[in-house]
Amino acid sequence: PFNPGNFIVHAVSNIICSIVFGDRFDYEDKKFIKLVEMIDENNKLQESLQIQLYNFFPTIMELLPGPHKKLVKNFEDVDQFTMEIIREHQKTLDPSCPRDFIDAFLNKMEQEKGNADSKFTVETLSRTTLDLFLAGTGTTSLTLRYAILILHKYPEIV
Question: Which Gene3D superfamilies does this UniProt record tie to the protein (predicted)?
Answer without folding.
Answer: Cytochrome P450 (1.10.630.10)
